[in-house]
Amino acid sequence: MPRVELCGHISSAGYDGDMNNEMRFRFLGNTDEVTTCDCCGRSDLKATVALEDECGTVVHYGVVCAARAMKLTATEVRRGARKADDDKRRAEEAARTAAWRAEYNAFQMWLDARVAPKGDRFRQLEALGGYKAARAAYEAETAVRAA
């Protein structure tokens, strides 16, 4: 196995063999964008596991090299990478939901400021000529404020 320098440590599998000086990694997930293992150099991989070492350096290892570097089984590496992918997906979904909710609330506050009764979205939209007309007026007004 080629020796690689990671975070100032010379390593063949993510640590230099000294048990007290073992490298610690954090799973970032799986990726098929990088198909070459940074540890052993194998280049015909379907995907790699993205790991971040304790210095913040991101490395891409095959499952076997990641398992050796982290002293885990290949199954545990796959599970950890899958969990990182799932956590990332949930965080992105939460961000999209928060952005949608903020936009929804801003539009409702705009409607409440212009048409009574407050909070009765159907009647407010009806009074402004329908959803398309109300949304166009809202976007035109917020674009003017943003500029």
What is the C-alpha radius of gyration, as a whole number of Å? Answer: 26 Å
Individual helix count: 4
Indicate the overall shape.
rod-shaped
Q: Give the helix level as a range of percent.
A: 40-55%
Q: How would you write the strand order of the largest sheet?
A: 3-4-5
Number of domains: 2
Kindly state the mean pLDDT as a whole number? Answer: 86
Order of helices and strands: EEEEEHHHH
Structural class: alpha+beta
Kindly describe this structure.
The chain has helices at 63-70, 74-114, 121-127, 131-146, and strands spanning 4-6, 9-11, 25-31, 48-53, 58-61. It has 147 residues and is α+β, with helices and mostly antiparallel strands. The chain folds into 2 domains: 4-90, no CATH class; 92-146, no CATH class. A 3-stranded antiparallel sheet has the order 3-4-5. Strands 1-2 form a two-stranded antiparallel ribbon. Strand 4 and strand 5 (58-61) form a beta hairpin. The longest helix has 41 residues, at 74-114. The radius of gyration is 26 Å and the shape is rod-shaped.
